[in-house]
Amino acid sequence: MSERKPYGYWKDEKNVLAEIAAWRAEHGGEFPTQRRLKETGNQMLSAAIILRGGFRRLREQTGETQIRQTDAHWRDFDRVRVAVEAWRAEHGRYPGKMDLDATGHANLSNAISRHHGGFLSVRQRMGAALDNHPNGHWKNFENVREVIATFQETHGRFPTSSDLDRVPGAKSLSNMIARHHGGMNAVRERFHVGIVQERKDFWKDFENVRLHLEEFRQTHGRLPTNRDLIATKRQSVSAAISKYHGGFAVVRVRMGETDAFVRHPRGHWQEFQNVASALLEW
Predict the structure, then answer these.
(1) What's the mean per-residue pLDDT of the chain?
(2) Cα dihedral sign for 33, 39, 40, 42?
């Protein structure tokens, strides 16, 4: 069965069934498994079975008793690779979590998230160009949902903006969320997570302030003023900046705004128009 087959041979179900029958006859009636086919040099037959619905479907068609795949089965990345490649060959693209769940491969989907770092990590290990998404990819919330769900399953918590920007293949995803889906808090609500509960010392941690300011900057192209924070119901952020972090000018410097401190000519603040303009800005 190792000789080269003509083009299209493995797409014909009759050929696949004939090869299975021949393999069983050669191996004393044993029903083939993916591991046994690999051991005997029949990877193409294995791939053809997977393309036609997998070994479980084949057992159903032939009346064989099902073999439950253990959790350890999918810990082997080679098995995951073969299954993903088979799905990709049939559908012309890499699968996402929803794709595998919808096509009866929930065990594979769960293993990818649980044991192999998530779908983007698997794609990277398989040599895919992760950042080569089609136009509008992140406008589709299901693509965003997939990345966040995978992060939750892997890390046991909801991601921050910084977490998402560090996910392979999701560069600037937090920016896309702010632009197309209402920001991180809106997405948290769609996941029924709710707004982050503020501990007593929550706003003393500058990282929590920075995340809110960065989200605003990604949406509006600039850091917020005091009026911006109040208008967008971020009064707690504004109060924390003044109470714990040295005021807006200091925070702007910490956020990389090198022109936050501006030297004014002598007498500048004696002009009421300059004072009024500054107050309106803050």
Answers:
(1) 76
(2) positive
